[in-house]
């Protein structure tokens, strides 16, 4: 007789399906009813299956909570609910118009099946250094809204990722929405992902930029890269240095060198540290060249 397996499986998870945000927050408030927030599950289920993280006793599905499903304009900002999927991001006229880098990044994540299931909050909460949405969120200087039964808390996206696979979210909180400033007139965004193939690849290096060059001067330049550190990072030091500089061959060359020097990546199965440093400088230079080309049209 075969012994009975004591290993936990997906079928052993006690999953709740609250129909409102308030109901979900009430479940999260009590340690006895609290569970792992679960939307698309495209990151979590892989990690559970591989044993990277243990299968939880409880999960709380937030996939179809109406308050987490919206994309709307709010003055100079765009509000995106935490359970909005990658497919919805890439197809939304609002996101494509005002946050084009985010729409492009969402279109590079996995295949259509992953894009239909995976969500913006899941990509952020998983906190992978290679999370494709992170750079496009960071360049907006936006915020994320977290909530519990005790109230709401707004966190700057530039302060949300606190370390490898860590974000500033308390156990009882849920990610509700992202409040992202729109792209201003005469400003432009770019997105670039470098991987071993064109589709369904985890990034070697990826990044986003937002800015404006006018009359040959860099008036504004925001840039963030992923897969180059324990978290995606904004290049604040470079941004401060380059603002007000003339757009020139010398400026491009120094920006490339400074960018490569700002990161301290690791070597792993997807790439070497040396390559990541070299290509990061090239990528920032490419963003500036693209910005200049579009600004002069």
Describe the structure.
The protein is an alpha+beta fold and 297 residues long. Helices cover 34% and strands 25% of the residues. The longest helix has 23 residues, at 273-295. The protein is globular and about 60 Å long. The chain starts with 13 loop residues before the first strand and ends with a helix.
Quick take:
With 297 residues, the chain is α+β, with helices and mostly antiparallel strands.
Can you count the helices?
Answer: 12
Number of strands: 14
How far apart, in Å, are the first and last alpha carbons? 76 Å
Assign a percent range to the helix content. Answer: 25-40%
Amount of beta strand = 15-25%
**What spatial order of strands do you see in the largest sheet?**
4-5-10-6-7
